[in-house]
Design a protein that fits this description.
This protein is an alpha/beta fold. Helices cover about 50% and strands about 15% of the residues. It contains 12 helices and 10 strands. The relative contact order is 0.10.
Length: about 325
């Protein structure tokens, strides 16, 4: 009997944990670029899912940003067929004309396409190949931009994407393990040149910053960064629950918030209450940032008769006596 390579076994165990107890009888869909991480995930899911009584499908997205991208996407779809995956879908997206930089635009287009594919196939979950190394990079980038706990929590192991659970089974698996698994299985991953292009911030973190940290602090630093994300995520969940209850307490029947009630809250809780309320008012979550919440907080804790706090989406919040309410002059 052939001995199963340890990286292959570790990835299969991670996938089994993610797929166990999923509701419904629809397939699980793997998002695969053809890189080592997502290719190893696809192979593991193709093995594990049928043994749990579930079909495993695959979707690959052609962004059209590199020469030969259509051919590579077709190759990924062909490999999925060889692995016995179904359904298999190749989706082409248009990135040009979207707001933000090229990374953000490509990511937005990709996730829209993945969500649509998951809905079309009736998938009960969509799996992506983000690894422990990706999580470490995410935490470092969050530190660099001064992100709060939400940023330091990194990528969640599970989140909603257009009504379909998006799962990241490999957040405890290293990039080295996915490469080794592909080698053991005879799979030939594609190496995306964008991943080493210094024009991209994440690529610089990957090629320069993380290796420097490993040299200075040892390889355990990657596990430490990923563990930090998990611990902070747990704290965030607890604080969000507390803040949800607090928002109910300080809310007036007309929707305004009580200033004395807000002032009595711990700063960490009050910030979350104000953030959640701003989203309720219609502020786009992606544009809402710390300075907006800080401006709302100043209406509570540093009130000097100042004007309204302005929020994304053309909203303004004013303080009137002992209440914060949506202003009348919002655009």
């Amino acid at each position: 009997m052939a001995v199963l390579a340890p990286p292959v076994a570790a990835i299969r165990v991670a996938v089994r944990r993610a797929l166990t107890d999923l509701p419904g009888d629809g397939p699980v869909l793997v998002a695969c670029s053809g890189g080592a991480d997502s290719l190893a995930l696809a192979a593991a899911t193709a093995f594990v899912a049928p043994r749990l009584g579930r079909r495993a499908g695959l979707v690959t997205v052609d962004h059209g940003l590199q020469e030969g991208s259509a051919d590579r996407a077709a190759e990924v779809a062909a490999v999925a067929g060889e692995l016995g995956m179904a359904p298999v879908e190749l989706v082409r997206v248009k990135v040009a004309g979207r707001p933000g930089g090229p990374e953000a635009a490509a990511r937005e287009a990709r996730y829209e396409a993945l969500a649509d594919a998951a809905v079309r196939s009736g998938a009960v979950a969509l799996l992506t190949g983000h690894t422990r190394d990706d999580q470490a990079e995410t935490v470092l980038l969050a530190l660099a931009r001064g992100a709060g706990p939400r940023g330091l929590a990194g990528m969640p192991a599970r989140r909603d994407l257009g009504g379909v659970p998006l799962l990241r089974p490999l957040l405890g698996i290293s990039r080295e393990q996915t490469r080794a698994a592909c080698a053991a299985l005879g799979l030939k991953p594609w190496v995306d040149p964008h991943n080493s292009d210094p024009a991209y911030t994440r690529a610089r973190v990957r090629s320069d910053v993380l290796p420097a940290l490993v040299r200075a602090l040892g390889p355990a630093v990657l596990d430490g960064l990923a563990r930090t994300a998990r611990l902070v995520a747990e704290d965030n969940a607890a604080l969000d629950e507390i803040a949800g209850a607090a928002l109910t307490t300080v809310r007036h029947p007309d929707g305004a918030l009580s200033v004395p009630g807000l002032a009595a809250l711990a700063p960490a809780v009050r910030g979350r209450v104000l953030h959640a309320w701003a989203r309720e008012l219609g502020a786009p979550p992606g544009a809402l940032c710390h300075r907006h919440v800080a401006a709302l907080d100043a209406l509570v804790t540093a009130w000097r008769g100042q004007g309204p706090a302005y929020l994304p989406g053309g909203l303004c919040v004013q303080r009137r006596a002992d209440r914060l309410r949506l202003g009348q002059d919002n655009a």
